[in-house]
Description:
Helix content of chain B is 72%, strand content 2%. By secondary structure, chain B is an all-alpha fold. In chain B, strand 1 and strand 2 form a beta hairpin. In chain B, helix 4 packs across helix 6 and helix 9 packs antiparallel against helix 10.
Amino acid sequence: MTDLSKTPEKTAQKTAEQATDQAGPAPFGTPAAITVTGVDRVFGKRKREVVALSAVDLTVAAGEFVSLIGPSGCGKSTLLRLVADLDQPSGGTIAVFDKSAEQARLDQDYGIAFQQAGLLPWRTVAANVELPLKLHGAGSAERKARVAELLDLVGLTDFAKSRPDQLSGGMQQRVAIARALAEQPRLLLMDEPFGALDEITRERLQAELVRICRETGAAVLFVTHSIPEAVFLSDRVVVMTPRPGRITDVVTVPETLRARTDATRDHADFLHTVAAVRAALHGGHEPAEDLA
Amino acid sequence: MLAALQRARSVLLGLLGLAVLAAVWDLYKAFGPDDGVRVGDRLLVLPRASDLAMPHTWEVVQRLGEPVTSLPGAGSTLGAVVDASLFTLAIATRGFVIGVVVGLVLALLMSRVRIVESALLPWIVLSQTVPLIALAPLVKRWGSEFDRLGYIWTNEQSVAVIAAYLAFFPVAVGALRGLKSAEATHLDLMRAYGLGWWRTLFTLRLPSSVPFLLPALRLGAASAVIGTVVAEVSIGLRGGIGRMIIEYAQSASSDPAKPWAPILGAVAVGLVAAGVVGLIGLLLRPYRTAEATR
Amino acid sequence: MSVVAEATAKDTRARLPISRLRVSTVLAPVLLGVAVVALWQVLVDHYDVSPLIIPAPDAVWAQVTDNRGSIVDGATVTGRNALLGLVGGAVVAIVGALVSHAVRFIDQMAVPVVAAASVVPIVALAPVLYTMFGAGNETGRVLVAALSVSVPVYLNTLRGLAQVKAVHRDLMTAYAATPTQVARTVTLPTALPYVFTGLRIASSLAVISALVAEYFGGPVGGLGKSITTSASSSNYPLAYAYVLGAIALGIVFYVVTLLLELWVTRHHPST
Lengths: 292, 294, 271
C-alpha cells in the first residue's frame, strides 16, 4: 500500500517509451497492444458475489513484455482471459490494438498458451501446430512450410510425427508455444505456461521464449507466480493482490537486465529487482535493501 | 433456495419429457395410418395406428383400474399387477443377492491372486458377451432332475439362478476395478504401517472401491430384474410379471390396453430395484468422493 | 528418446479389460477353458449324467455338425434383426445425445425416460410390439434390439460429449472457430472412445435382445425360437447346439465392434 504514489498508468507510459526504444520493431504511432481501462469482473450474484478484478488499468505497448504476478485468487488469469475475450468484463473497457477484445479475437490478433499444453492427443505434433492455420483456411503448402519453420524454432523437428503423450511436459509446452506462434501474432497471451514444469526445464524454456520474442517482436502478456521468472523475462512486472483483485504496483525491470542471458540471473540488479517485486507482493513490509 | 428451485425445474422438465412422449404417441395414433407405414411390401417401419393395435395412452392408465377379465368377481388389474410385481421383485432380490455375493467373492479372488484374474476375467467378460441367457429354457430341466436326487428345487430357484447369473457380472467387474483402484501412495502407506492383506482390504481397498461398486450394483440390480422377467417367460413360472406379459398379450386383439399393464409393472419393479441401490448409495456417501470425477 | 520408445511400446490393449498381454494372460484362460470342457466331458461320461441335465460336449458337437445348415439359417435371421437394431438404435441414440448435449432442457426432459429405459426389461415390450407391428413381422424384434442398444449408446455418448476439456474449449474460442469446426476438431474426437464403449456394450446386447425377444412369440426361424422348440421336444443336445450358435453370433458381433473400435480410436492415447 505504501507504493501507491507510483500509479500504474504513469509507469506504463514511461516504460512504453522505453520498450519502443528497446525492442525496436514497433514504429512511432503504433497502437498499444493492450489497453485496459477501469475493468471490473464480478462472479456470482448478490450474496455469493466475488470481486475477481476491481478498477484495473493497464497498458501494454507493442513489442513489450509484461508479466502479471500475484498470489492465487488475485485475478491475474482472469485479466488475461478478459484480454483474450474468453470472458467478458462486468465493467470498463479492453482494447487490443485499438479494437475491441472480441474483434481482436475474431481477427486472430493474438496467440495464446495455457498452463496445460492443451494439445489434442489424437493429433500428431505437426498436426497440433498446424491446427490454427488449418482452422483459418491456410493452404496446405503454406501450412507445411510454416509448421516446419515453427518446429525448428522450438527445436522439435524430429518429433513432428510423434503424438503428444509421447513427449515430456516441457516438450509438450514447446509444441503449445509453437502453436501459439503459428499465425505470427503481434501479441502473445501466456497463462502460467511453465507453471507445471521443473526448475531446470523452466529456465531452458524461458531462454527459448526470450529468443523467440526477439525474433518475432511480439508483445507478451505473461501470467506467472514465479518472481525470478517474471523479472528475467519482463520489461515490466505488474504486481496484483487478491480480495478484490487489483494492481497494487508496477516494477520496471532495469536496462541492465535486458540482455536476458544466464549471467543476468546472477547480476546484482536482478537480485535487487526480485527483492523489489517480493516487497511489493508483501505490501511493502520488507524493504528491498534488507534483502539485497 | 436456489437448489430447491433447480430441483423443481428438473422435475418439471422431466414430467414434461414424459408428457411429450405421450403426446407423440397419441398424435401418431390420431394421424398415423391404420395399417402402419411400410417400406416395400412387408416391412413395417411405423406401427399400425388402429384402435386394436395401439391403445390411447389414457386407456392404458384407465385399464389399470378395471377388472382383469369381464368374468364376475374378477379382481382389479392394478391389484393383479402389484401382486405379480412383488412376486417378481422377491425373486429378483434373491437373484441379486446371490449375484452380488458371487461377484464380490470372484472379485476378491481375482484381486488377490493374479493368475486367477488372468484365467477368469476373459471368461467373465465372454459370459456376458454371449447370450447365455439363451440357456434359460434349458435350466428348467435341472429342477426335475435335482428333485429326483432328493433336493427340492423349484422353478423359482431356477429363475433366481438365471437372475443371479446376469447380476453377478457387473458386480464382479466393477468390484475388481474398484479393488484395484487404490492409489499407489496409499498402498505404500499401508505397507509402511505394516498392515497385512486383510487389514489393507478393510482400511483401504474396500472403501476406495465404493465409487466403482455403486454403479456396478445399480447395473446388477437392473440385470437381476431383466433376468427374472425373461427367465419367468422361458421357464414358464406363473405368478410373476414375465408370465403375465405373455398371458395378457394373448387378449391384446380384443383388449389392446391390457398387455401394457404388466409392462408398467415391469417398469415399476426396475425403478424400485434401482431406488433401493440408490439408498445404499446414500448410506455410503462418505466414500463416494471420487465418483463424480470418474 | 527413451520417452518415445516407452510410449510407443504401450498400445491400445490397455483399454480392454485385460490388464497386460503376457503369456499367462493368454495361456491361463485357454487352459481353464480346455480344462472345464474336458472335466465336463469326463464327468458326464463317468457318472452317466442324463443329457436332460447337461449333455456331453461331444454330443453337442455332433448336433452342431449335423444341423450346421439350420443353425446358420437361424443365426442369419437373428443376426439380421440384431444388426438392424444395433445400427438403427445407435444412430438414433448418437443423434439424440448430440441434441441433448446442445439443448439443456431437452437433456433434462429425457432424464426420466432414459432412467426408466435403463432399468426396464425392454424385451418385455416384445409382445405389445408384435401387436402393433403384426406378429408375422420381424419389426418388433428389430425394435426391441434397437431400444436396448440405444440406452447404453446414448448414455455413453452423452458422457463422452461432456469430457471436452476446458483448455480445449478455450483454445477453440481463442481461434474463433465455427461451431462445425469445434465439433469436428474437438468435441467428436473427444467423445469417440466413449461412443465406442457404448457400442461395444450394445453389440452383445443387440444379439441378446433379438434372441430373447423370440421367446416372447412372433415368427419362427430365429435361433431363439429354435432353442425353445428343441427344448420343449426334449432334444437337449440340439438345444445346446443352437445355444452354441447364439454364442458364436454374440462373439462375432462383439469382436467386429471391438476391431472397429480399435481401428477408429487408434490415434487416441489409451487411458
